[in-house]
Amino acid sequence: MPNMTLSVPDEMHEQMRKHSDVKWTAVARKAFESKLAKLEKSEQKSNDAVRAYALKHALDDWDDADELLKH
Predict the structure, then answer these.
(1) Is-above-0.85 flag for pTM?
(2) How far is Cα 22 from Cα 17, in angstroms, rounded to an integer?
(3) Of 54, 52, 50, 49, nearest to 65 (Cα)?
(4) What are the boundaries of each domain within the chain?
(5) Torsion of CA 59, 60, 63, 65, to 10 degrees
(6) How does pLDDT run across 17-69, given as a tens digit for each residue?
């Protein structure tokens, strides 16, 4: 598993040191996972919207519709 170095403001670091029982790496990992899940969901919605628009507005003789749907 790759390592990552994060910078946090001094005040935050002091607060975190007061809670040494917390596994801050796990907290950060869960925050990253949550953000990535939200981004992927948003990307999927965007892709679905593009596909729906393309399908709704595609002309029968438009040969490039399949190419648009690949993106």
Answers:
(1) no
(2) 9
(3) 54
(4) 44-71
(5) 50
(6) 999 999 999 999 999 999 999 999 888 888 777 777 777 776 555 666 666 66
